Amino acid sequence: MPRPSQSQSQRSSTADRPNATQEVDEAHLITCMVKTILNLSINKSIIKRSDISHIALKGDSRLYTRLMPDVLFELESVYGYQLVDVESKGQKAMILCSTFETSSLDELSESYRRRYTFLFLILGYIFMKNGAVPEALLWDFLHSVGIEEQQEHECFGDPRKQFELFIKQAYLTRTKQSVEGMPEESVFLSWGVRAKHEVSKKAVLDAICKLMNRKPTDFKTQYIETQAETSESVTAVGRTRTSTPNGRGELFFAMNNNINGTVDGQTVVEYSTVDSSVKELIEAAIQVRNNAYCPYSNFPVGAALRTTTGEIVTGCNVENGTFGPSVCAERTAVCKAISEGHREFTAVAVAAYQENEFTAPCGTCRQTLAEFSAKDIPIYLVKPAPVRVMITSLFKLLPHAFSPTFLNNK
């Protein structure tokens, strides 16, 4: 089959791109770019500009440059993320960093809690050693606390695998440095770009001082760094952006600085602003999520129902090797509640493990909830840690639901 000529290829490529006379739905493209960035970073991977342009804009770099300021603004004001420049194999790339304060480890699942405890241990050691240590010295320290480089650990799993993952995710940076008196360069480790943006040095120092029964001021160098960090945080919080280059600032202003707003037409609020009964329901969903049996999907979900008597009934997802008998968290909770004599619910909370998306009940679970809901009930959706809460409702998620009353109409 003959290959197309260069001019034919150029015409074909150009046809896929909007020209100067075509109208471009910039709001749609901004949404596409935001979703692409969130998807590319779901495992905290490094993001290449070319991938964003190729997936969301069909390779049109001109649109990328024009729309990126609005994309950055939406990522921060709506989702609480910043795109931070990094270098990857000598090329410029980006990572998506959270702008929220570090969440409590208690809010994480057991596997995540163990992973980040190991990370915290490494970052703490580097911080107390004034910011950079030879890699060999770090492993000597880990050996002293019972963690062997080439040996599976009962709590942290494969230390070397976790360690390399931290480097890949930019929590750690590995560099070569010349050391006086040594013939070869040594490999040093320091905090990576992600750690600098997401991990609080003050929290690290406070934890170490608590462990050692010391005061933060006993470690002058580290204490001064934490004070500088606090000052930078105060300055950052004081900055607000009220408009964007294309005049869409009003759309996002209501959500800037973590103020309540909407996402995809659903209300999103700060976790701290919901009332105590809602917090109780959400915390129950988070707690039961740790009991999920999901060896095949590795996607734990917890659900909590509030009954008309005020009781909370919880459930987690239970998977099966043949897949068919697997049960979602929401239906587990419903079946449990029904078996205990309840027949109607007033609220639902669902907690899953997508960092970049709110996870809603599947269609089958929505219909199951509708079976026992004569009227609309609120549904609260939370991400891994309840920084923000999406408030929706059963009838919003399942409009025109099939009702048991339909079967009684003769």
UniProtKB/TrEMBL annotation:
Residues 276-405 form the CMP/dCMP-type deaminase domain. Pfam families: dCMP_cyt_deam_1 (PF00383), MAGE (PF01454). InterPro entries: APOBEC/CMP_deaminase_Zn-bd, CMP_dCMP_dom, Cyt/Deoxycyt_deaminase, Cyt_deam_tetra, Cytidine_deaminase-like, MAGE_WH1, MAGE_WH2, MHD_dom. GO terms for cellular component: cytosol. Residues 1-13 have a biased composition (Low complexity). The keyword Zinc applies. Its EC number is 3.5.4.5. It catalyses: cytidine + H2O + H(+) = uridine + NH4(+). The active site is at E330. Residues 1-21 are annotated as: Disordered. Keywords: Hydrolase, Metal-binding, Zinc. Zn(2+) binds at C328, C362, C365. Its cofactor is Zn(2+). It is an enzyme of class 3 (hydrolase). PANTHER family: CYTIDINE DEAMINASE (PTHR11644). NCBIfam families: cyt_deam_tetra, PRK05578.1. Belongs to the cytidine and deoxycytidylate deaminase family. This enzyme scavenges exogenous and endogenous cytidine and 2'-deoxycytidine for UMP synthesis. This is cytidine deaminase. It comes from Anopheles quadriannulatus. The lineage of its organism: Eukaryota, Metazoa, Ecdysozoa, Arthropoda, Hexapoda.
